[in-house]
Structure formats: C-alpha cells, structure tokens
Amino acid sequence: MAEQPDGLVTIRDFVRWGASRFNAAGLFFGHGTDNAIDEAAQLVLGGLHLGPFLPVTFHDCRLTPAERDVVAELIERRLTERVPAAYLTGAAWFAGLEFFVDSHVLVPRSPIAELVEASFTPWMDADRIGRVLDLCTGSGCIGIAAAAYLPDVDVDLVDISPEALRVARRNVERHGLEHRVRVLESDLFSSLDGYRYDVIVSNPPYVSRAELEDLPTEYHREPSLGLFGGEDGLDIVLRILGEADQLLSDDGILIVEVGNSAQALELRLPEMPFTWIEFERGGDGVFLLTREQLVEHRAMIEAVLER
Questions:
Q1: I want to staple 38 with a disulfide (CB 3.0 to 4.6 A). Which of 33, 180, 257, 267 is the partner?
Q2: For the ranges 49-53, 115-119, 125-129, 284-288, which has the lowest average pLDDT?
Q3: Cβ neighbours of 215 (radius 10 Å)
Q4: 69 vs 49: CA distance, rounded Å
C-alpha cells in the first residue's frame, strides 16, 4: 500500500500532493493532459469514479480512508511505472465523451476531435455525410464520436489488431451505438471491398524510427503497432493515400493525422495539394484531401509507393 503523508484529506489536497510529486520526478505529460496539476486531477477523480468536470464546490470534499488508499496507490504507480494516467484509471475523454482504454490502444488525444465536434464542417456539409470510416481506429474514439455528433450517419471502425477491436467494441456498446457502428478487422482497406465512404478519417501509425527512440517512457507503454510507421513514419500513410480514392464517394474527403511526419510527407509528395488543418485548441499535422485530388495525383502516389 502506497504511503501518504498526514494531513491529506480532501480532493484538493491529493491533487496538490500528486502534482508536486509529479513535478519533482520530472514526469512527462502528453496523454490527455499537459501539466502536473491536470494529470493529478485525472488520477484523483478517476480513482473516485468522478468525471473531469466535477464542480469546484466539491474540491474540498473529504475522502474516506479507503478512498485515500486508492488515490495514493494510483499516484504512486504513475510515478514508479511511468504509465499514462488513462491506463491506470481505464478511462479517457475525447470530443467530450468518455472511453474505456487499456494498453492495447493508444490514449485518445488527436486534434481531430475538433473536426468531429464540428461534424466535419466546413470541410463537408453534415447533411451530405452518410457513412464514415475510422481507419486504424484503436479505441474507436474518432468513429464513435462521429456517430454521436452525426446521429443519422453509419460508421465503420477498422483496425488490424484484434485486441484493439475488443476495446472498440466495448466502447461501441458503452455508448449504445451498435445499430449504427460496425467493428471490422482489416489490414487497412483489404477487407472493405464494395464499401464507399463520404469521410475517411484516420490517425494511423506515423512515428519514425528516430522519433520513436527519443520518445519519453510513457509513450513506450503504448502499443508500438499504433505508433511506429516505418523508417520515416510514412509506410501506412502512403498506403492509405494509394488506396483511399477507391473507397471514397465522388465528393468524399480523406482526413489523416501524420503529426511530426508532416514535413517528411511533403518532401515525398511535393506536388500533392495537402490542406493542413488549423485547430483552435492546438495540434497540427492533420491533412485533408478530396477524392478528386487523390485521383488526379494517383500516378505520383503510386510512383512513391514503388520506390
């Protein structure tokens, strides 16, 4: 059982204590939070089965002895194991929705949440969206959120990992979307013949080998299958570009997150008319292409794939 100093009794006490210990230990924050206070709050509230939007009037509520033990143990594990907080609590938030996560999926944190909350406008008229594909879905957070924000849309969640798909199915059931969201095992588009989508959105593996080796310990607790995208991070991204037009509707759009591999992608495809999306809440490295653009530049994409 983790030790805790005397005098810690309230939610506020434990958040402050946890944040101080995290800062002293030099932890890295980047899996849903970007500072020690928010990270400690996530663990404390998660350990108490309370959401992140707890009114401030509850911050001085006193914990029971059993609750103090649970919270102290979570803080200790975060320090000693360098595990992202979401894995310790089993919960992460994306686009205002709560998702179950474990170490078989990446912790949701994509800026694509902003696009989902806006129902993909202004890039696509929401009334024209009938089917969405969430490719490399992991926990299912992007596709499930899309189904929640677009109540008349059908969504397919696709991943190559059976373990990730088990997490995605759990989240589909959690949000009661079984009637509109399908979970499919596929190596990218290989098992999706005959389907057409108005929006294909993907947060695929895009971390290069050099970047992966330099990542903080917390990232190495996540599945490498969801992170590593080859020597320059573009193996999966280029495959998506080479095949997506065949599954998009005539006016469909492709949205892909490539993070820090954006520059490498533009060097590989210098004539590709990428639209790089700007986000109000921060984040970058997300591009948009129309089906028409993908068809027009197919020869260039295929030439890069053949090298």
A1: 33
A2: 49-53
A3: 14
A4: 14
